Amino acid sequence: MRWYRIAAVVAVAGGQGQAPPGPGKVALVGVGVVDVAAGRTLPGRTVFIEHGVITRIAPADSVTVDPSYTRVDGKGAFLMPGLADLHAHVRRSEELDLYLAAGVTTIQWLNAGQDDLALRDAIRAGTRRGPAITLCRGGINDVTDSAAAVKEVAQTIAEGFDCLKIYNRFTEPAYRVIIATAAARGVRALGHIPRQLTWQQMLQARPRAVAHAEEFLYSPIESAADVDTIVAGMVRGKIALIATLTNYDMISRQLVELPELLRGSEITTYSPVHRRTWGPKRNRYSTRWTSEQAIAFRRQLTFQRALVRRLDSAGAQILLGTDTGNNFLLPGRSVHDELVQLVLAGLTPASALRTATLNAAAFLGEPGKWGQVVEGARADLLLVAGDPLRDITNTKLILGMMTAGQWHPRTELDDWVEKVRAGYAVEERMVAILERQGPAAAIRFVEAERRRLGRPPLGVIGFNEVAYQYWVLDNDTTKARLFFEANARLYPNDPIAKSSLAEFRGAMRGK
Questions:
Q1: Fewer CB within 10 Å: N-end or C-end of the chain?
Q2: DSSP state of 471
Q3: Burial of 196 by CB count in 10 Å (0-12 exposed, 13-18 middle, 19+ buried)?
Q4: Residue that terminates a domain, selected from 304, 339, 368
Q5: 363 and 418 share one domain
Q6: pLDDT-derived band at 12, boundaries 50, 70, 90
Q7: What is the pLDDT of residue 241?
């Protein structure tokens, strides 16, 4: 069961996600080039880009810019590689503009489904705007034998995914076989350490990456020698760690400052329907743990930070990932929060930046192709107002960015964000009516808006997710039925609306 599905090229607001124009010639003049490999800044450079590739970098006072180039004055600003989030979950296609607006030019989307492949392919073909996407097939769970493990790898390849995500329930033989088979067939296998297994068994199996630092909390670490063994095993086995520290930090914050988080203006760029699950009634963390237990979460976060620092110092591959899709982890913005967490863990700003640039490109099998501001690299670039090697929070001071060979100034990025926010206006009103007056009134409002506009006023995903919230979280099948059936009326030919209603009716049969 997926609570959310993506309609591949559907936009919420006009112009959103439209195909970018063809790549041109751009010159970024007078910038400080951030060399993430060496951890230094090269001042006063002019960077020439043609057809989406960096063709030349030279001292600004030694070159002239031909009028055929779009000239961007970057004097006093800093040019760094675009960032990568290697643990992302995309709930709505409009979120892709939020990644770009935050300077995130590559994402690894874990737990993806078949209906997400078209979106990835549209971006690769240049017919849809968005960050470069690597798709990991998700939902791989309850694998108990070697034959089933081999079948999961074959299905991942047959369906066209780039990688596969291992979840929580595997037997030890199945875990070893799925990792070995994936490696033999050129597919990255990464994810959780299954809950019935140990970190020792993970080290023996050698997945391509562990998806969270918190995975090491779920089997005993009894001594400093155990930590030494983990570090040595990760380095020797070339097992990367996607830290996701900001996710764990946010869990503890929800236990003590949930009202303040809910008042944050930035969350209005995220789906109002999904935000229903962040409030006190349905919050998956604050309904389970108390504010007093936040102290334990902070101690566990301290352990994770120390482990990340040890691994980085030992030469293990640390990757930036956020686990967007979880509460308050906003697409794009949370990447900058994770950079701060990595520095708090003890990484230098340069090392933290490498987790989202050089390391990410190497992990995805594209070393040297992007993740650096060097000649010959893809021009996925971010122009910021301060030097991120001096202060990692300067990555948030975005003046503009480049992707797919096009320069996008801050004003354009802000416009993308506001279009996402505006696109949720009807959904925001629907949720407000739902909370004050109940499901019937919310459905009447949406149906009235459809008659007024002559089209459905919000995407198929909105009603679908409300229906699943009532069904799965609230165990209220009466209200769930209202929304599943209303969705089918609004979208009579949509396969998502049809399949979700059929799934619900099938589950209710005989009850």
A1: C
A2: I
A3: middle
A4: 368
A5: no
A6: very low
A7: 98
Going by C-beta distance under 8 Å and a sequence separation of 6 or more, which residues neighbour residue 296? none
User: Half-sphere exposure of residue 282, counting CA atoms within 13 Å on the CB side?
Assistant: 18
Q: Residue 173 and residue 166: Cα distance in Å, rounded?
A: 14
Residue 435 lies in a domain: yes
Classify strands 40-50 and 53-59 as parallel, antiparallel or unpaired. Answer: antiparallel
Two tokens at 478? Answer: 């009466």
| Cα 371 to Cα 446: distance, rounded to the nearest angstrom | 44
Q: What per-residue confidence (pLDDT) applies to 11?
A: 29
- Of 275, 264, 259, which Cα lies nearest the Cα of 427? 275
Determine the Cα–Cα distance for residues 189 and 179; give it in Å rounded to an integer.
6
Q: Is residue 3 scored above 90 in pLDDT?
A: no
C-alpha–C-alpha distance, residues 273 and 280, integer Å: 15
Q: Please state, in angstroms and rounded to a whole number, the distance separating the CA atoms of residues 137 and 111.
A: 5
Count of positions (residues) in the chain:
511
23-41 b/e with 16+ CB inside 10 Å = b? bebbbbbbbbbbbbeeeeb
Query: Which residue(s) pair with 191 in the sheet?
Result: 166, 210
- In angstroms, rounded to a whole number, what is the distance separating the alpha carbons of residues 285 and 70? 49
pLDDT value at position 496?
A: 85
Domain-embedded: residue 40: no
Q: One-letter amino acid identity for 88? A: A
Q: Check whether residue 128 and residue 236 sit in a common domain.
A: yes
Q: Which two tokens stand for residue 351?
A: 């090392």
Q: Domain span at residue 486?
A: 414-510
Band (13; pLDDT cuts 50, 70, 90): very low
Q: How far apart are CA 7 and CA 238, in angstroms?
A: 36
State pLDDT tens for residues 426-437.
Answer: 999 999 999 999
In this model, does residue 228 exceed pLDDT 70? yes
On whether both 364 and 418 belong to a single domain, the answer is no
Please spell the DSSP secondary structure of 249-302, one letter per residue. HHHHHHHHHHHHHHT-GGGGGS-HHHHTTTSTTT-TTTTTS-GGGHHHHHHHHH
Strands annotated E in 398-507:
398-403, 406-409
Query: CATH number for the domain including 213?
Result: 3.20.20.140
pLDDT at residue 313 tops 90: yes
Contact 97, 51 (CB under 8 A): no
Tell whether 419 and 344 lie within a shared domain.
no
452 belongs to a structural domain: yes
What is the bridge-based pairing of β-strands 25-35 and 40-50?
antiparallel
User: How far is 192 from 198, CA to CA, in rounded Å?
Assistant: 11
For position 440, which CATH number holds?
1.25.40
pLDDT at 242 over 50: yes
